[in-house]
Amino acid sequence: MARTLGKLNFPVLNKVRLRNKEDYLLVTWEFLESFESASERDIASRLGITAATASQYISALVEEGLLNREGRSILFTPSGKKMTVPLVRMHRVSEVFAYRFLEVPWEDSHVSVMELEHLFYGEKGETLFKNLGRPSTCPHGNPTNPVERVPGISASLLQTGNYKVSRVVFEDRDLLKKLASVEAYPGREVILDTSDGVTLKTEIGEIKLFPAETQALILVK
Ligand SMILES: [Zn+2]
Fold first, then answer.
1. CB within 5 A of ion ligand 1: which residues?
2. Is the domain of 65 the same as that of 93?
3. Cα separation of 14 and 63, whole Å?
4. Where a domain ends, among 40, 61, 76?
5. What is the separation of C-alpha 176 from the centre of its chain, rounded to a whole number of angstroms?
6. From the CA of 5, how far away is ligand 1's center (Å)?
7. pLDDT tens sequence for the chain (221 residues)
8. Rounded to the nearest whole angstrom, what is the distance from the C-alpha of residue 46 to the centroid of ligand 1?
9. Does some domain include residue 54?
Protein backbone atom coordinates (compact mmCIF):
# COMPACT_ATOMS: atom_id res chain seq x y z
CA MET A 1 0.00 0.00 0.00
CA ALA A 2 1.31 3.43 -0.85
CA ARG A 3 2.23 5.62 2.02
CA THR A 4 2.16 9.36 2.07
CA LEU A 5 5.55 10.73 2.89
CA GLY A 6 3.97 13.99 3.94
CA LYS A 7 2.95 12.50 7.24
CA LEU A 8 6.44 11.43 8.22
CA ASN A 9 8.17 13.69 10.60
CA PHE A 10 11.45 14.49 8.86
CA PRO A 11 13.79 16.75 10.75
CA VAL A 12 14.33 19.82 8.62
CA LEU A 13 17.74 21.33 9.03
CA ASN A 14 18.65 24.62 10.57
CA LYS A 15 16.54 27.65 9.89
CA VAL A 16 13.71 25.85 8.18
CA ARG A 17 13.12 23.41 11.00
CA LEU A 18 10.57 24.48 13.56
CA ARG A 19 12.43 25.34 16.70
CA ASN A 20 11.68 23.11 19.61
CA LYS A 21 11.69 23.63 23.33
CA GLU A 22 15.29 22.46 23.72
CA ASP A 23 16.54 25.06 21.24
CA TYR A 24 14.87 27.87 23.17
CA LEU A 25 16.25 26.68 26.47
CA LEU A 26 19.77 26.20 25.08
CA VAL A 27 19.87 29.64 23.50
CA THR A 28 18.52 31.27 26.65
CA TRP A 29 21.32 29.56 28.56
CA GLU A 30 23.92 30.81 26.09
CA PHE A 31 22.84 34.41 26.49
CA LEU A 32 22.62 34.27 30.27
CA GLU A 33 25.97 32.52 30.55
CA SER A 34 27.76 34.84 28.13
CA PHE A 35 26.14 38.21 28.79
CA GLU A 36 24.18 37.68 32.01
CA SER A 37 21.04 38.75 30.18
CA ALA A 38 18.64 37.35 27.60
CA SER A 39 15.80 39.11 25.82
CA GLU A 40 13.14 37.93 23.39
CA ARG A 41 14.88 39.84 20.64
CA ASP A 42 18.22 38.17 21.38
CA ILE A 43 16.64 34.74 21.36
CA ALA A 44 14.72 35.41 18.14
CA SER A 45 17.81 36.61 16.28
CA ARG A 46 19.96 33.71 17.47
CA LEU A 47 17.32 31.18 16.36
CA GLY A 48 16.65 32.95 13.07
CA ILE A 49 12.94 33.42 13.75
CA THR A 50 10.68 36.44 14.05
CA ALA A 51 10.32 38.27 17.37
CA ALA A 52 6.60 37.48 17.33
CA THR A 53 7.20 33.73 17.04
CA ALA A 54 9.82 33.85 19.79
CA SER A 55 7.51 35.85 22.03
CA GLN A 56 4.70 33.37 21.58
CA TYR A 57 6.91 30.39 22.32
CA ILE A 58 8.51 32.05 25.32
CA SER A 59 5.05 32.78 26.72
CA ALA A 60 4.30 29.06 26.46
CA LEU A 61 7.53 28.27 28.33
CA VAL A 62 6.62 30.84 31.00
CA GLU A 63 3.24 29.17 31.27
CA GLU A 64 4.97 25.83 31.64
CA GLY A 65 6.95 27.21 34.55
CA LEU A 66 10.36 26.95 32.86
CA LEU A 67 11.10 30.63 32.17
CA ASN A 68 10.24 33.92 33.84
CA ARG A 69 9.91 37.41 32.42
CA GLU A 70 11.32 40.28 34.40
CA GLY A 71 10.74 43.43 32.39
CA ARG A 72 12.53 42.68 29.11
CA SER A 73 14.74 40.02 30.59
CA ILE A 74 14.13 36.31 30.29
CA LEU A 75 15.28 34.21 33.24
CA PHE A 76 15.14 30.54 34.18
CA THR A 77 12.89 29.30 36.94
CA PRO A 78 14.54 26.63 39.14
CA SER A 79 12.77 23.88 37.19
CA GLY A 80 13.75 25.50 33.88
CA LYS A 81 17.38 25.51 34.96
CA LYS A 82 17.13 21.91 36.10
CA MET A 83 15.81 20.89 32.68
CA THR A 84 18.37 22.96 30.74
CA VAL A 85 21.62 21.91 32.47
CA PRO A 86 21.55 18.39 30.94
CA LEU A 87 20.69 19.86 27.51
CA VAL A 88 23.71 22.15 27.61
CA ARG A 89 25.85 19.28 28.82
CA MET A 90 24.79 17.01 25.95
CA HIS A 91 25.25 19.83 23.46
CA ARG A 92 28.86 20.19 24.57
CA VAL A 93 29.54 16.46 24.72
CA SER A 94 28.07 16.13 21.20
CA GLU A 95 30.42 18.87 20.02
CA VAL A 96 33.40 16.88 21.28
CA PHE A 97 32.07 13.83 19.44
CA ALA A 98 31.48 15.77 16.20
CA TYR A 99 34.88 17.44 16.33
CA ARG A 100 36.90 14.36 17.20
CA PHE A 101 35.10 11.57 15.36
CA LEU A 102 33.11 13.18 12.57
CA GLU A 103 35.92 15.60 11.67
CA VAL A 104 33.56 18.54 11.82
CA PRO A 105 35.70 21.71 11.76
CA TRP A 106 36.22 23.39 15.13
CA GLU A 107 34.27 26.46 14.09
CA ASP A 108 31.31 24.45 12.78
CA SER A 109 30.78 21.98 15.59
CA HIS A 110 28.46 24.24 17.59
CA VAL A 111 25.94 24.59 14.77
CA SER A 112 26.37 21.10 13.36
CA VAL A 113 25.34 19.31 16.57
CA MET A 114 22.04 21.17 16.94
CA GLU A 115 20.42 18.09 15.36
CA LEU A 116 22.74 15.43 16.71
CA GLU A 117 22.54 16.30 20.38
CA HIS A 118 18.88 15.31 20.60
CA LEU A 119 19.91 11.68 20.11
CA PHE A 120 22.12 11.68 23.18
CA TYR A 121 19.96 12.90 26.01
CA GLY A 122 19.88 10.68 29.08
CA GLU A 123 21.76 7.43 29.49
CA LYS A 124 23.16 7.29 25.94
CA GLY A 125 24.69 10.70 26.45
CA GLU A 126 26.43 9.66 29.64
CA THR A 127 27.80 6.57 27.87
CA LEU A 128 29.09 8.79 25.08
CA PHE A 129 30.66 11.11 27.67
CA LYS A 130 32.41 8.17 29.33
CA ASN A 131 33.70 6.79 26.03
CA LEU A 132 35.00 10.19 25.00
CA GLY A 133 37.22 10.08 28.10
CA ARG A 134 35.03 12.40 30.21
CA PRO A 135 36.02 15.66 28.52
CA SER A 136 35.80 18.58 30.95
CA THR A 137 34.97 21.07 28.19
CA CYS A 138 33.61 21.31 24.65
CA PRO A 139 36.12 22.09 21.86
CA HIS A 140 35.59 25.79 22.57
CA GLY A 141 36.46 25.52 26.24
CA ASN A 142 32.95 25.62 27.70
CA PRO A 143 32.39 23.19 30.58
CA THR A 144 30.54 19.91 30.06
CA ASN A 145 29.37 20.44 33.61
CA PRO A 146 27.57 23.68 32.71
CA VAL A 147 27.31 25.02 36.26
CA GLU A 148 31.07 24.77 36.80
CA ARG A 149 33.02 28.03 36.86
CA VAL A 150 35.84 28.10 34.33
CA PRO A 151 38.51 30.68 35.17
CA GLY A 152 39.04 33.35 32.55
CA ILE A 153 38.97 37.08 32.08
CA SER A 154 37.34 38.73 29.12
CA ALA A 155 39.86 39.93 26.52
CA SER A 156 38.15 43.34 26.54
CA LEU A 157 39.37 44.02 30.09
CA LEU A 158 43.08 43.30 29.69
CA GLN A 159 46.34 45.12 29.11
CA THR A 160 48.76 44.13 26.37
CA GLY A 161 50.50 40.90 27.32
CA ASN A 162 50.85 37.13 26.95
CA TYR A 163 47.85 34.99 27.80
CA LYS A 164 46.39 31.57 27.22
CA VAL A 165 42.97 31.14 25.59
CA SER A 166 40.58 29.66 28.15
CA ARG A 167 37.21 29.57 26.41
CA VAL A 168 35.08 31.22 23.77
CA VAL A 169 31.64 31.93 25.17
CA PHE A 170 28.56 32.33 22.97
CA GLU A 171 30.23 30.46 20.10
CA ASP A 172 29.46 32.79 17.26
CA ARG A 173 30.52 31.04 14.05
CA ASP A 174 32.17 34.06 12.43
CA LEU A 175 34.26 34.68 15.51
CA LEU A 176 35.18 30.99 15.81
CA LYS A 177 36.23 30.99 12.16
CA LYS A 178 38.43 34.00 12.73
CA LEU A 179 40.04 32.41 15.77
CA ALA A 180 40.56 29.15 13.87
CA SER A 181 42.40 31.04 11.11
CA VAL A 182 45.21 31.76 13.61
CA GLU A 183 44.67 28.54 15.60
CA ALA A 184 43.70 30.43 18.73
CA TYR A 185 42.10 27.38 20.32
CA PRO A 186 41.62 26.90 24.08
CA GLY A 187 44.94 26.19 25.74
CA ARG A 188 46.97 28.07 23.09
CA GLU A 189 49.34 30.90 23.99
CA VAL A 190 48.35 34.25 22.50
CA ILE A 191 49.50 37.83 22.70
CA LEU A 192 46.84 40.48 23.14
CA ASP A 193 47.89 43.85 21.85
CA THR A 194 45.59 46.59 23.09
CA SER A 195 47.39 49.56 21.57
CA ASP A 196 44.71 50.03 18.89
CA GLY A 197 41.54 48.10 19.69
CA VAL A 198 42.43 44.52 20.54
CA THR A 199 44.66 42.47 18.26
CA LEU A 200 45.16 38.80 19.02
CA LYS A 201 48.46 37.35 17.84
CA THR A 202 49.66 33.77 17.59
CA GLU A 203 52.63 32.12 15.88
CA ILE A 204 50.47 31.77 12.76
CA GLY A 205 49.24 35.32 12.40
CA GLU A 206 47.09 37.98 13.92
CA ILE A 207 43.45 39.02 13.92
CA LYS A 208 41.69 42.12 15.04
CA LEU A 209 38.90 41.47 17.54
CA PHE A 210 36.25 43.53 15.88
CA PRO A 211 33.44 44.44 16.41
CA ALA A 212 34.44 45.36 19.95
CA GLU A 213 31.68 43.18 21.46
CA THR A 214 33.53 40.09 20.29
CA GLN A 215 36.39 40.92 22.69
CA ALA A 216 34.11 40.10 25.58
CA LEU A 217 33.45 36.61 24.19
CA ILE A 218 37.03 35.45 24.42
CA LEU A 219 38.17 34.53 27.89
CA VAL A 220 41.86 34.16 28.59
CA LYS A 221 43.98 33.40 31.62
ZN1 LIG B 1 31.43 24.50 22.15
1. 95, 138, 140
2. no
3. 26
4. 76
5. 11
6. 35
7. 333 333 333 333 344 455 688 889 999 999 999 888 999 999 998 888 899 999 999 999 999 999 999 999 999 999 999 999 999 999 999 999 999 999 999 999 888 887 788 788 788 999 999 999 999 999 999 999 999 988 788 888 888 999 999 999 988 888 999 999 999 999 999 999 999 889 999 999 999 988 877 888 889 88
8. 15
9. yes
